[in-house]
């Protein structure tokens, strides 16, 4: 028994066609916002900031993801005038999306005077949940599957969707399903670490970068979709290796770095003009939210400010 491919990729509401690929991304984004609001509130931050960041970071992520896709796989761009923009047909590079969204999101957080590194730790598990839901969209688009396989959970791919050189095979590795499972497992692990270990921010985000990229090293060995190659390896393999190393170094350095706790910085800053000592700590002209008890920054724990 194998996993069947879906017979449809969307549905119609009147004259409007709704693509499951786009719908899954919208569901993933909504879940990421809900999760981040809860985690940011637990860290002592204003949950409304999450909405402001999302308004800017989500479009930036879509743009960054499409630019990455167009640059790394130009052979897959539809041969239409709007081809470079056709995200509804698939084609968003996760690394390009996260990179641009992180830059724009950090700008909004810093502009609000909040801690960028704390916000990064709050959003890390939520990003993984969004990515996992987004992979369901790949299933409906019949894309991002792996090498041929005879395993019971092999994915049946119709002939017209099989890449050149693989038309004689009927079932393939459901690599998007493997990633969905891994993303949810890593998200759960980050939440657990935030609750049970003293991880200095942005350590959880660094682990997200290192962990997801390490998984992609494996995934790139089984993917057969079109890709630019260099020295016999897929381009994304090099990026995955580089980001795994970078994320690991980032995590180690963030945990070794000395830092002043939020509570100590608040005391050093003195009470606010209205006498409310809980108004926040000021660093570089911005106000850092003061958590009563964070799920990833323990009471009196370090809160370095950092940007990706």
Question: How many strands, which pairing sense, and closed or not: the largest β-sheet?
Answer: 2 strands, antiparallel
N to C succession of SSEs: EEHHHHEEHHEEHHEE
Average pLDDT across residues? 84
Low-confidence stretches: 259-308
Q: Roughly how many Å apart are the termini?
A: 45 Å
Radius of gyration: 21 Å
Envelope shape: globular
Counting structural domains, the number is 1
Structural class: mainly alpha
Q: Please state the oligomeric state of the protein chains shown.
A: single chain
Secondary structure: helix percent: 40-55%
* Number of alpha- plus pi-helical segments: 8
Keywords:
single chain; 308 residues; mainly alpha; two-stranded antiparallel sheet; two-stranded antiparallel ribbon; 8 helices; 53% helix; disordered C terminus
Structure explained in plain terms:
With 308 residues, the protein is mainly alpha-helical. The chain has one domain (16-266). The protein has eight helices and eight strands, in the order ββααααββααββααββ. The strands form four sheets. A two-stranded antiparallel ribbon has the order 1-2. The protein has a two-stranded antiparallel sheet with strand order 3-4. Strand 5 (229-230) and strand 6 form a beta hairpin. Helix 2 runs antiparallel to helix 3 (94-111), helix 4 (116-141) packs parallel to helix 6 (203-220) and helix 6 runs antiparallel to helix 7. The protein is globular, with a radius of gyration of 21 Å. The protein starts with 9 loop residues before the first strand and ends in a 20-residue tail after the last strand. Mean pLDDT is 84; it is low at 259-308.
């Amino acid at each position: 028994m194998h996993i069947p491919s879906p017979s449809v990729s969307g549905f119609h509401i009147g004259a409007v066609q709704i693509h499951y690929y786009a719908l899954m991304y919208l569901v993933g984004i909504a879940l990421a916002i809900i999760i981040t609001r809860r985690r940011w509130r637990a860290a002592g931050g204003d949950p409304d900031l999450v909405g402001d960041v999302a308004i800017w970071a989500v479009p930036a992520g879509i743009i960054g993801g499409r630019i990455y896709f167009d640059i790394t796989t130009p052979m897959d761009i539809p041969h239409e005038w709007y081809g470079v923009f056709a995200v509804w047909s698939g084609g968003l590079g996760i690394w390009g999306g996260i990179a641009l969204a992180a830059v724009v999101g950090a700008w909004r957080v810093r502009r609000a005077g909040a801690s960028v590194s704390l916000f990064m730790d709050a959003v890390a598990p939520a990003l993984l949940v969004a990515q996992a839901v987004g992979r369901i969209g790949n299933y409906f688009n019949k894309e991002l599957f792996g090498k041929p396989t005879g395993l019971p959970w092999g994915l049946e791919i119709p002939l017209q969707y099989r890449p050149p050189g693989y038309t004689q095979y009927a079932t393939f590795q459901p690599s998007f399903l493997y990633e969905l499972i891994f993303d949810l497992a890593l998200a759960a692990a980050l939440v657990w670490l935030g609750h049970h270990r003293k991880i200095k921010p942005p350590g959880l985000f660094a682990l997200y970068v290192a962990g997801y990229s390490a998984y992609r090293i494996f995934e790139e060995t089984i993917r057969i979709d079109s890709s630019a190659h260099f020295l016999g390896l897929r381009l994304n393999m090099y990026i995955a290796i580089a980001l795994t190393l970078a994320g690991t170094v980032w995590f180690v350095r963030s945990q070794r770095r000395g830092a002043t706790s939020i509570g100590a910085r608040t005391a050093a800053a003195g009470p606010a003009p209205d006498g409310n000592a809980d108004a926040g700590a000021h660093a570089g002209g911005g106000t850092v939210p003061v958590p009563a008890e964070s799920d990833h920054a323990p009471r009196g724990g370090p809160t370095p400010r950092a940007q990706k």
